[in-house]
Amino acid sequence: MVEQTVTVKNRAGVHTRPAAMIVKLAAQFKSDISFIGENSMRINAKSIIGVMTLAAAQGTDLHIITNGADETDALSKMVALFDSGFGEPL
Amino acid sequence: MSLTNINIIKHDKVSVRELFDAPLTLVSMNDETGWDNVLQDENIHRPQLALTGFTDLFTSERLQMLGNTEMYYLQSLDEDRRVQAFINIADRSVPVIMLTNNHTLEPLLLKIATDHNIAVLQTDVETTKAIHLISEFLDDKFAVQGAVHGSFVDVYGVGVLFIGRSGIGKSEIALDLIERGHRLVADDIVMFTKKRDTVLMGTGTSLVKHFMEIRGLGIIDVRQMFGIRAIRFQKRLEIVVELEDWDPNKEYDRTGLDESMREIMGVNISSIKLPIFPGKNITVISEVIALNYLLKTYGYNAPKEFADKLKEEIERRAKYKHGSDEQRHVSYFQGDEE
Predict the structure, then answer these.
(1) A48 → chain B, closest CA residue
(2) Per-residue confidence at B168, pLDDT binned at 50, 70, 90?
(3) Looking at the complex, does the CB of residue B327 fall below 8 Å from at least one CB of chain A?
(4) S-S: A43 plus which of A36, A50, A57, B153, CB 3.0-4.6 Å?
């Protein structure tokens, strides 16, 4: 199990389209990937409704936990996706 | 993609004989003269200028409709000029002349028409209405038709076409939907006719009707088995559901925000790719697809509503850092323990 905290960088936060990107990325890995948001609720990254429930605004810290065969790859790709700001204005 | 091998049929001629199927009463004035003449497009012409002698752009190959204006003009001329006026159009290999308002041609003119092998038909309908009825009829006759391999079902009034590889279970899904009270339009071969450039109307073939093949069972007759409530003859195509084997490496739509369309015979139709795997109830999903389509048609778009709510929530949180992070739908349980 590996984990890392990321900050939501894009201005609009994790709205529907970023959420769909996260879920699509997560679905490519065998590992379990989850987020822990500010209210310490654990969310499965492969569930679109779950990721949207985070309602993470810009500046929110999210804790990513990956667990499984490809956990390090999954974590680094997920962190990179957040760092890229989902291709949206920062 | 079974829709790529759609078999397009285009009718490029309609005979005068077929005009008698049109939804108005037609009487032939000169027996069966010219009944095998053909129309090559759906347009109708009123040969007013041609009667006066200006035949430069005279679209003589069309159905020529003579109404009050043309007939009163002819009657206003003396006999020689009247014959000349009529020959102006008769000379140009006109396939059919239609007289509206019960107008008749005097024997002399009728003979000219017969000599030129022109069918002369009469109707009691007035001109504007006759144009409308004949146009509709010819539009349909000349419409592009296509045969598609799939199952076409009316689900809650929405026309849903199931396509996918042979043996994936299209007929079984149709059967399951019938069992739940929906109506089969056609199975296996569905004939689509393009209407007014934006609508595709689907029906079965005249031979197959509501017969259907179920693997391992053979041929069944849905109409006999389930009765009249289980079938319908025609339905507008509204959604295409493409069934495919589940592929874990493929991406499927997760939000439904982007409506995907596919072009069939030049008409854009809402389209959904549905992966199937054991334990997935495609019938229920099909009902949900139809209901969701109805909701959208009536102005409620669930993905958009959800996305808007989410945006509001993100904005609220950005504004009041660490306000309430209540996640429950009901934020305070009063004594009510329902």
Answers:
(1) B254
(2) confident
(3) yes
(4) A50
Most confident residue range from A37-46, A73-82, B206-215: A73-82
Domain ranges of chain B: 12-141, 143-297
- Cα distance between residue B153 and residue B187, in whole Å: 8
CATH number, residue A39: 3.30.1340.10
Range of the domain at A50: 2-87
Whole-angstrom CA distances from B186 to B155, B201, B285 are: 13, 12, 20
The pLDDT value recorded for residue B2 is 45
Q: Is the model's pLDDT at A18 over the cut of 60?
A: yes
Interface of B with A in 246-285 (CB under 8 A): 251, 254-255, 257
The alpha carbons of chain A give a radius of gyration, in whole angstroms, of 12
Q: Please report residues of A whose CB lies closer than 8 A to that of B251.
A: 24, 27
Query: In CATH terms, are B12-141 and B143-297 the same topology?
Result: no
Among A23, A39, A57, beta carbon nearest to B314 = A57
- Domain B12-141 indexed as CATH 3.40.1390.20: yes
Contact partners, residue B248, CB within 8 Å, separation at least 6 = none
Is the separation of the CB atoms in A78 and A33 below 8 Å?
Answer: yes
pTM of the shown model = 0.76
Interface test with chain B among A15, A44, A61, by most B beta carbons within 10 Å: A15
Judge whether B149 counts as a catalytic residue: yes
Is the CATH code 3.40.50.740 the one for domain B143-297?
Answer: no
What residues of chain A lie within 8 A of the CB of B315, using their CB? 57
For residue B253, give the chain A residue with the closest CA.
A20
Residue B287 contacts residue B155 (beta carbons within 8 Å): yes
Mutate to test the interface with A, among B254, B258, B322, B325 (most CBs of A within 10 A): B254
Model confidence over B118-165: pLDDT tens digits?
999 999 999 999 999 999 999 888 888 888 889 999 999 999 999 998
Distance between CA atoms of residues A79 and A72, nearest Å: 11
What is the count of structural domains for chain A? Answer: 1
